[in-house]
Amino acid sequence: MDLEDLYDDNNKLKVPLRRSLAENKKVLGILFENCGDVVQKSFAMERAEGMVYMHVVYIDGLTNNGMIEETILKPLSYEWRGNSAKDVWDSILYQEVQTADIKEETSFDKTVGSILKGDTAIFIDGYARSMIVSSKKLPLRGISENDTEAGMRGPKDSFNEGFRQSTALIRRRIKDAKLRVEQDTIGERTRTDYALVYLADVASEELVKRVREDMHRYDIDAIYDSGMAQHLMENWYSPFPTFQSTTRPDKVAAGITEGRVAIVFDNSPEVILAPCNLNMLLQTSDDYYNRWAVGTFARIIRYIAAFLAVSLPGLYIAITVYHSDILPTKLLYAIASARSMVTFPVIVEVLLMEFLFELLREAGIRLPGPLGNTIGIVGGLIVGQSAVEAGIVSTMVVIVVALTAIASFAIPNEEFASVFRLLKFFVIIPSAIWGLYGYILALLVIAVHLSGLMSFGIPYMYPIVAGSGKRAYANQDFVLRAPISWMRKRPIFAREEERMRLKPHVTKSHATNGFSRPAAEQSEGAIPGLKPHVTKSTEKEEKNHESGGR
After folding, report:
1. How far lies 91's CA from each of 51, 76, 96, 542, in Å?
2. According to the 3-state scheme, what is the secondary structure of 458-524?
3. Which of 57, 79, 143, 198 meets the CB 3.0–4.6 Å disulfide criterion with 75?
């Protein structure tokens, strides 16, 4: 029997588990031939009925060896020696093995898959089954401070490459029994674990079904990161991401409570959320932790930065080449003076500086942290100043490119910011050919493309395209962020019966302080449409108070 004879066309084991331990050991020997890290050990257990033969398999480096010794080998070999039982299998499974996380498996393919994930498999002679003991001890880094989505306020922890650690960070924040963690695998070779995490009573059934189907749209041999699976589910022709990726557990928890679906992948610190729109990609957790005025101001800055990042170089080219008459005279003279010693046309200047800056950015990313930052700063200063002194570019072009780069850094989502880095070249070309007409045409093409994008049935431009009846609530979390007490409803992708998320609860002590006054006596600052909730005990106390306490 060869290795190829054991697998079918889908790279799954087609041989069944045998009652004969020798036959199972033969298959395991073929599967793990020349695998020095796979530990296989056979034992003879003394029982009242005679000797019982057992075979244990695990992978060194992925398994807690001490746990195997204490919970499997020591109890079976010494503590229960001479035990009498009608069924050896049930006795071992339910009494002798000293661990709660043990299960029975009848598939050889799933047994081998559990071994490769770090579990320990136990085979007993005379039984066409296996026992799977959870004994994982994977090499993982600890939960560290978030360095890709840093914020001034809020928690500092972040996801890591550990699958169970990531789901635990979500569970820690959402202590609700309705939180579902649907686990499955993807990739015929890697068999990467992933989980769909959502609230069963908040997330739409149609949304969960579509995400579940999209995860198995393709058969692929390997998935190493959430980005690979994300690209399989997205439209290939659009540069804009239709999933939101993040390393912040608080952001994922907030998305789940809104009715979104989170997808957690093993070996990936990035968790992706669906659905997603343009507005979500320009939001940060600090927007909700700070006061509404501060959060609103920060969002306005980001929207302006996003517009400058994609349009400023093209606008500069269009105005200076074709429409310089609209500039103030002094500014026009300043630009002409700066360009007096430059030999290249404006389009070449801008493209040259943009390419130089992208080169410095890429070099800074690939170099170690402190050295990369130094290269970016020193390289930009020295090369920019040398280019101006040599007459290759003008000072105005250096300013425009620098402002564009700073604006792109203000976009909180790195994947989304990379799209703007590409689109600025898309705007530059027609602006250099047709001036302001080409500039406006390029922006219109981008706007039309965004208007046609959908993320699991939700428009990408939501809430700009929200219906008239839903726009009032949708706009409360748009560019202008309303106070938390005003944001009473969840987004439109949540279940209709669970749209309400804020219900003021007024007790007797609040009522006596004036919180349950009639509508005509409420203060002008009260939230329109909110009705205080008064309990039956409060109503009874009010009646007693009106009757003089009788």
Report:
1. 15, 10, 6, 64
2. EECCCCCCCCCCCHHHHCCECCCECCHHHCCECCCCECHHHCECCCCEECHHHHHHHHCCCHHHCCC
3. 79
Q: What percent of the chain clears pLDDT 90, i.e. is strictly above it? A: 46
**28: closest CA among 10, 3, 4?**
3
- 498: which residues sit within 8 A by CB, 6+ positions away? 201, 202, 259, 490
467 or 339: which leads in pLDDT: 339
Please state, as a whole number, how many other Cβ atoms lie within 10 Å of the Cβ of residue 379. Answer: 17
- pLDDT tens by residue, 118-144: 999 999 999 999 999 999 888 888 888
pLDDT category at 145 given cuts 50, 70, 90 is: confident
Are the beta carbons of 222 and 461 closer than 8 angstroms? no
Tokens (6 digits) for 499: 């749209």
- Residue 494's pLDDT band, with cuts at 50, 70 and 90, is confident
Q: Give the tokens for residue 297.
A: 């101001």
Highest mean pLDDT among 133-137, 195-199, 474-478: 195-199
Cα–Cα distance between 117 and 63 in angstroms, integer?
9
Q: To which H or E segment does residue 179 belong? A: strand 179-186
User: Angle between the 329-338 and 395-409 helix axes, to the nearest 10 degrees?
Assistant: 100
The beta-carbon contacts of 495-502 under 8 Å, at least 24 apart in sequence, are 495/201, 495/202, 495/203, 495/204, 495/259, 498/201, 498/202, 498/259, 501/257
Q: Which residues contact 36 (CB under 8 A, 6 or more apart)?
A: none
* 499 phi/psi in degrees, rounded to 5: -70, -35
Q: Give the strand order in the sheet containing 50-59.
A: 38-47, 50-59, 120-124, 130-133, 102-105
Q: Look at residue 193 and give its three-state secondary structure.
A: strand
> Cα–Cα distances in Å, from 141 out to 102, 193, 366?
26, 18, 21
- Tell me the pLDDT tens digit for each residue of 248-276: 999 999 999 999 999 999 999 999 999 99
Give the whole-number percent of the chain exceeding pLDDT 70: 87
Residue 246 three-state SS: strand
Rounded Cα distance, 195 and 90, in Å: 31
Helix or strand holding residue 39 (H, E): strand 38-47
Q: Which amino acid is at 425?
A: F
Contacts of 212 (CB under 8 A, 6+ apart): 182, 196
